[in-house]
Specification:
Blueprint: H1 3-18, H2 37-56, H3 67-71, H4 95-112, H5 119-148, E1 174-177, E2 180-184, E3 200-204, E4 207-210, H6 216-224, H7 236-245, E5 253-256, E6 259-264, E7 267-270, H8 282-291, H9 299-305, E8 315-321, E9 347-351, E10 367-369, E11 378-379
Parallel strand pairs: 8-11
Antiparallel strand pairs: 1-4, 2-3, 5-6, 6-7, 8-9, 9-10
Helix pairs in contact: 1-5, 2-4, 2-5
Length: about 375
């Protein structure tokens, strides 16, 4: 597939995700971690304008000089920006304005992509495609949070169909990993993010990683056993978090007239006990593991075992801190701010989720969030 077609496909997928929204849905920012949908569609447009059109397209005229300030996310090298907490205060530019901006940049990109491109430009384009796919998943989880915190619990549409992955596992419950030295990280052809490099060797003790994700029903047993009330299962920070925020169940779970229900993209539904548990924090995942007298896998154990179980329904918490691999290096300039600056105070998740964009998952992908966050499709797999 040529670069122009890839560009058009990625851009159209973002717009398709937004089709069920009403204008008012585009503007809401209930909490700092959730960005308004209109900010997402503006930001990914700004990325192509800032890193492709402005530096490389001759005679390109910027759509609006103020938009760099509005839609820059965290790139210090590019200049000042609206702070994250204020994205929901941007009643202007309007949704209509942002779609005009998107159309303007897309037309310029159509023209630009007719030309012969250097390898440097091609690399930035591929990063741009993957960057927008990241925001497509964020867009879906942010939309769910916005609608799921509306007192009417409105539906976005149909809940995404569960992804189907090839099943390479046998009937045993755990993947056994022998003690030894293993290679970790991306290698080969195709795209990867800089935090997946460089491939390196790690020593792993003998262990086992579960072939199945923890289900809602299993997690409900933890709740009914008083798991949220017993400090013995929790990290100290997690115990503070549970008590300060009065957490007693995963996000979107509600006990209504004695029956558990949960909010989904298709609205409020009875809790499906056989579905993988979702929207739990690292604190909750680690506490559940402790209750089961097990633990979470390290990200290295997960990567070694992942070829022998189905994955992709949930981003899976690991017990690994988000740190650079040996030999990690940042690209020069603003692009180098992409991942490395966040390698502190966060935990690694592996896999993908039901709202990960098609073609945007691989075994070596390293997602990362602070341990209290749970608005993503986060789940639990155990190790021992």
């Amino acid at each position: 597939m040529n670069l122009l077609q890839q560009y058009l496909d990625v851009r159209q997928f973002t717009e398709d995700l937004c089709k069920p929204l009403q204008t008012e849905d585009y503007v809401v920012q209930p909490v700092v971690d959730v960005s308004p949908p209109k900010w997402h569609i503006g930001h990914v447009t700004w990325f192509f304008e800032t890193f492709i059109l402005k530096p490389y397209m001759k005679n390109y005229v910027e759509f609006d000089p103020q938009y760099g300030y509005v839609f820059n996310s965290y790139y210090e090298a590019v200049g000042a920006r609206v702070i994250r907490t204020d994205r929901g205060n941007l009643s202007r530019p309007t949704v209509a304005d942002i779609y005009k901006y998107r159309k303007y940049v897309d037309e310029a990109m159509r023209q630009f992509l007719q030309n012969d491109l250097s390898e440097e430009i091609k690399e930035i384009l591929i990063i741009g495609f993957n960057h927008e796919q990241q925001h497509q998943e964020l867009l879906m989880t942010d939309i769910k949070y916005i609608l799921g915190n509306n007192p009417l619990f409105p539906a976005y549409g149909k809940e995404p169909e569960p992804k189907i992955y090839s099943n390479n596992s046998d009937k045993e419950a755990f993947v056994k990993i022998e003690a030894g030295i293993y290679e970790i990280g991306f290698e080969g052809e195709g795209f990867c993010f800089d935090n997946e490099l460089k491939r390196h060797k790690v020593y792993i003790d003998a262990c086992q990683v579960s072939k199945e994700l923890i289900s809602n029903g299993e997690y409900l047993e933890f709740i009914n056993a008083g798991g949220y009330k017993n400090f013995n299962y929790w990290h100290a920070d997690g115990w503070v978090w549970v008590n300060e925020h009065r957490v007693s169940a995963p996000m979107y779970w509600y006990l209504i007239e004695g029956k558990w229900q949960h909010y989904t993209l298709s609205g409020m539904r009875a809790l499906e006990l056989n579905e993988p548990v979702c929207h739990v924090s690292f604190y909750e995942a680690a506490a559940f593991a402790a209750w089961k007298n097990k633990r979470l896998p390290t990200e290295f154990e997960w990567e070694i075992a992942a070829g022998k179980f189905d994955w992709g329904r949930r981003w899976e918490w690991t017990e690994s801190a988000y740190l650079p691999y040996p030999g990690f290096s940042k690209a020069p300039g603003a692009i180098g701010e992409y991942n490395g600056k966040f390698m502190i105070s966060q935990m690694v998740l592996r896999g993908a989720s039901d709202v990960t964009s098609p073609g945007h998952s691989r075994i070596t992908y390293r997602n990362f969030f602070q341990p209290n966050l749970r608005w993503q499709y986060t789940g639990i797999r155990l190790a021992q």
